[in-house]
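Severity: low
Component: inverse-folding endpoint
Summary: output formatting inconsistent between runs
Steps to reproduce: submit the following structure tokens with default settings.
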């Protein structure tokens, strides 16, 4: 990974800026009770003004013994992200890099905490699935000398390289499949639109309904869940089943959520697909192995991770924006005879 232009701010820079000794700065960082409030405030102001970040592995970095990249995904418990992480790891390994991995749980504060920790640990680069549409904090990291690649996110700014999958196209293809089967009332169990993937999938679904001659406001009921996993899918499906004019097909924001939908439908003894067709998203390993194999939108997970790491390791000063296309995999949860 070519070195970036900016030099990291050192503890000496902070001491000089605050007009104190390096030892005093070290005390503020490690033993603040030993420093008078006035001096502590001067040092903390200098840290903020210089955007100083402690570097927990500075010694190893000087020795060149650590080459590490960090990745923050939404949830490592989601097989989609573990498959993406494997792609990242395989590319980093080719360059002798190690990977630090964390989940933001779609929480911007948790994401910020891990970004700070990774920077303190001296990672040379970061791949981030942003938990909010605003990526200005990632641009700041880039300005401080870190390589940053947006992962599973088309870049809203030219300056940040990105690797993503066209989620609008994926959701639209799944919708056309259901409309072709004769479904005219659909449910979509989705996360909040502050999560880009959720917003794009909803937009793709709605545009495909309109293109098929159906009014999205009439044909679609979107149920919002906060946990994009099986429990969230089960709770969302219970809401769908309680609808007065029950839809005949349910799309889910991902395969984990679809797993919960299948659980709820089984508990309500609703046959799949004749009572309710179900479509997932990601086509993770278990999708085809279920008792009712799941129709799902396949994402090129390993390639997504591999390419993000490749961009991080080889990025020239001109950012790159890579978009992969998803593919619908049709199985019995929409076309079966049950
Ligand atoms: O985290 C929600 C979803 O976004 C994942 O399941 C995967 O589809 C990602 O793109």
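Observed output (run 2 of 3):
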């Amino acid at each position: 990974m070519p070195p970036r232009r900016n030099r990291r701010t050192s503890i000496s820079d902070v001491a000089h800026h605050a007009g104190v000794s390096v030892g005093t700065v070290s005390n503020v960082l490690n033993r603040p009770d030993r420093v008078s409030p006035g001096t502590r405030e001067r040092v903390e102001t200098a840290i903020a003004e210089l955007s100083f970040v402690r570097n927990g592995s500075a010694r190893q970095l000087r020795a060149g013994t650590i080459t590490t990249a960090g990745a923050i995904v939404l949830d490592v418990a989601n097989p989609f992200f573990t498959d993406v992480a494997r792609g990242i790891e395989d590319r980093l390994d080719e360059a002798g890099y190690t990977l630090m991995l964390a989940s933001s749980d779609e929480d911007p504060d948790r994401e910020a905490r891990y970004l700070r920790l990774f920077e303190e640990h001296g990672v040379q680069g970061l791949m981030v699935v942003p938990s909010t549409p605003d990526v200005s904090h990632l641009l700041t990291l880039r300005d401080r000398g870190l390589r940053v690649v947006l992962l599973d996110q088309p870049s809203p700014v030219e300056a940040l390289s990105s690797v993503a999958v066209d989620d609008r196209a994926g959701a639209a293809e799944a919708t056309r499949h259901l409309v072709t089967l004769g479904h005219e009332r659909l449910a979509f169990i989705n996360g909040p639109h502050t999560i880009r993937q959720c917003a794009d999938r909803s937009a793709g679904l709605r545009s495909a309904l309109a293109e098929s001659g159906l009014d999205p406001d009439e044909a679609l009921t979107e149920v919002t869940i906060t946990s994009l996993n099986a429990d969230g899918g089960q709770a969302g499906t219970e809401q769908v089943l309680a609808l007065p004019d029950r839809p005949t097909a349910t799309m889910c924001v991902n395969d984990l959520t679809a797993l919960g939908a299948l659980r709820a439908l089984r508990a309500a003894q609703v046959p799949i697909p004749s009572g309710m067709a179900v479509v997932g998203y990601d086509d993770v390993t278990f999708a085809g192995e279920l008792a009712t194999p799941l129709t799902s939108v396949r994402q090129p997970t390993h390639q997504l991770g591999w390419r993000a790491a490749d961009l991080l390791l080889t990025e020239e000063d001109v950012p790159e924006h890579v978009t992969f296309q998803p593919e619908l995999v049709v199985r019995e949860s929409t076309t079966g005879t049950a």
